[in-house]
Amino acid sequence: xxxxxxxxxxxxxxxxxxxxxxxxxxxxxxxxxxxxxxxxxxxxxxxxxxxxxxxxxxxxxxxxxxxxxxxxxxxxxxxxxxxxxxxxxxxxxxxxxxxxxxxxxxxxxxxxxxxxxxxxxxxxxxxxxxxxxxxxxxxxxxxxxxxxxxxxxxxxxxxxxxxxxxxxxxxxxxxxxxxxxxxxxxxxxxxxxxxxxxxxxxxxxxxxxxxxxxxxxxxxxxxxxxxxxxxxxxxxxxxxxxxxxxxxxxxxxxxxxxxxxxxxxxxxxxxxxxxxxxxxxxxxxxxxxxxxxxxxxxxxxxxxxxxxxxxxxxxxxxxxxxxxxxxxxxxxxxxxxxxxxxxxxxxxxxxxxxxxxxxxxxxxxxxxxxxxxxxxxxxxxxxxxxxxxxxxxxxxxxxxxxxxxxxxxxxxxxxxxxxxxxxxxxxxxxxxxxxxxxxxxxxxxxxxxxxxxxxxxxxxxxxxxxxxxxxxxxxxxxxxxxxxxxxxxxxxxxxxxxxxxxxxxxxxxxxxxxxxxxxxx
Length: 521
Description:
By secondary structure, the protein is mainly β.
């Protein structure tokens, strides 16, 4: 009877969770040793999936109903693995762009899948005409074009873009940046990230301080908080590359004085609004600027223990795991919120799934610290088990977790004695990372017109939170996963190793729960 009752309870819990999403597709894909996974959807609802495994290119095309239209497994004869830099959807095909290098020569190597039939096409490689002393920064694609970005010793930017007539042919423009130099050379270029519509909206992606956006025939590069030569304060820099004219435009927001070497502000561009977040231990400031004029149009300021009124969800922290405790926590006390948000690089992302509201992810991300068995003496180490002979026989005294500084370094660094200690956070670990990063964030739902906090009779739903909760319930955590935009929905694809299938779950914005309404007298 107890087993039957437990089964009914589990069935009910599963049914409740299943209502939060639905399965879009379930296809057989041999992804046991996949090395790359890329997915892209078009406006008609077709989905193309690519992954590379064991020297073969694998492509699959799904219909808007989730049915498999075509599947290809194509031998790849080159020694180098294809490096997919970006995707684009043309009138007829899904285009996957890869970069191939042979010594000093570099080539653009695209792959194409027909949007209706799923037929595979491999256009001719094109050698990229590079100047001397050029460095590759990255590649990215939007709905209209694919770009490749390089820089040279004079810090000029070399931009390559495919043509309207031929997706495999690149045109070239050189842009003189004319920006102030940073104290550390190539500091801006070292952490560039392209903001695509399929970007996961979490603090890890939002904490990057060098972002690239594309609008029509212009490329916007926005840099936050870099130390500039001859400048005392840091600022937000906006560099515009106009493809049609070949000219650049450099603008800045008001400067902010940063305390110490840790960045305290970051920004995110959404349509015609630029949002900048400034976080310190006793202050949080969110300012929205008109991107054309750079004039502030809305500002929120909070200090000390003041409640953050624009919060639509509690402040959550993930990754800050102590020994034998969960890596997820909800911070409720206002006195701890500011300090927790300031413990990392500020991060902000903005997204929308309807015309009336904007969804902001506000917080910070602290990267995992590097492990070093010779320097990190505060890491936890488990001592070996000991066996003691007593009157009742041989008994084991289990080892205990203790800081590394309590153990003589002779034992931990010895090739012989170190094997008796369980040292997962530092043993032989020079240059690696200790544990995951720490994400601290909350969601804010603002009105799209006046940027005030949105009011609704329904419980506001954040699709990224739905995906996070769904992923947390998957045991074990999937090794291969992808998230992409599907109209006003989000698709989460992952490889189910137990069933040996690739599942795509669909999360919709209209899956809302009514708030508890007070009874009318």
